[in-house]
Amino acid sequence: MSVIEKAVVDLANALDTLEAKIETRLDEQNVSGDAISAARRQARAAKDQAEIASKGVGAAISDIKALLAKSETNGKG
After folding, report:
1. Count of the separate structural domains present in the chain
2. What pLDDT does residue 54 have?
3. pTM score
């Protein structure tokens, strides 16, 4: 796994952890239902964006690997 791929996985894990901490914290503080819903929506949106970004990074890594392989095959690498 490349450094970038590991970073994306670590980011996704961190967002999962953050989402769980937000849930716990909001429950502990008896925050209003609207605030809880807003925080949950924001956490979900951040997680969704991270997943989209990770797919883009994965595709970019695949493209770069293919270009490098092609370059090596053509004797340019």
Report:
1. 1
2. 78
3. 0.55
